[in-house]
Design goal:
Strand content: 15-25%
Helix content: 40-55%
Number of domains: 1
CATH topology: Rossmann fold
Radius of gyration: 16 Å
Number of strands: 5
Bound molecules: adenosine-5'-diphosphate
Mean pLDDT: 94
Structural class: alpha/beta
CATH class: Alpha Beta
Low-confidence stretches: none
Number of helices: 6
CATH superfamily: HUPs
Largest sheet: 5 strands, parallel
């Protein structure tokens, strides 16, 4: 039984994340998408909102579940009894950080392996940050995030704009 964790901020989940989920859940027995509750990062969406969007987007995929976490990834992996951590690699700029993370995690928990999936070409430019910028200026989000996420982004931008007035 191979259980994997795909951790990230998912603020919010994009088609790039979904592509990694869709490709990786087929090669493991169970995929846990771990949503990092890192308050220092000042996310746009609360961890509960990010979990809910991921649940909506992955609802049809068997053997995928969504779990929030905080603290060390290796501790979360141990709690979940996971053997593998999955990460997506976009460009060379991702590589240095991901290499450092995976090597550190390997030192902390030698029995947990990190597996990298390279991004599909059509999503290699895509990040949650870009999506939030497009949403802030009212741009068309349909190529970047699932419809349910686009709706939540619009709502959030509207609420934030009202707060600023
Ligand atoms: P983090 O804050 O941990 O980097 P993200 O939500 O930004 O969290 O990303 C989670 C994971 O998904 C990371 O491994 C990241 O490299 C990967 N990822 C993000 N966007 C894409 C994309 N467009 N294509 C492939 N992988 C991606």
């Amino acid at each position: 039984m191979l259980r994997a964790i795909y951790p990230g901020s998912f603020d919010p989940v994009t088609y790039g994340h979904y592509d990694i989920i869709r490709r990786s859940y087929k090669i493991v027995d169970e995929l846990i998408v771990g949503v990092l509750n890192n308050k220092a990062k000042m996310p746009l969406f609360s961890v509960e909102e990010r979990v809910k969007m991921l649940e909506e987007v992955t609802g049809k995929l068997p053997n995928v579940r969504i779990e929030p976490f905080d603290g060390l990834l290796v501790d979360f992996a141990s709690r979940m009894e996971a053997d593998v951590v999955i990460r997506g690699l976009r460009a060379i700029t991702d590589f240095e950080y991901e290499l450092q993370m995976s090597q550190t995690n390997h030192k902390l928990a030698p029995n947990v392996e990190t597996m990298f999936l390279t991004t599909s070409i059509e999503y290699s430019y895509l990040s949650s940050t870009t999506v939030k910028e497009i949403a802030a200026f009212g741009g068309d989000l349909s190529q970047f995030v699932p419809e349910a996420v686009a709706v939540e982004l619009k709502k959030k931008m509207h609420t934030n704009a009202k707060r600023r007035v």
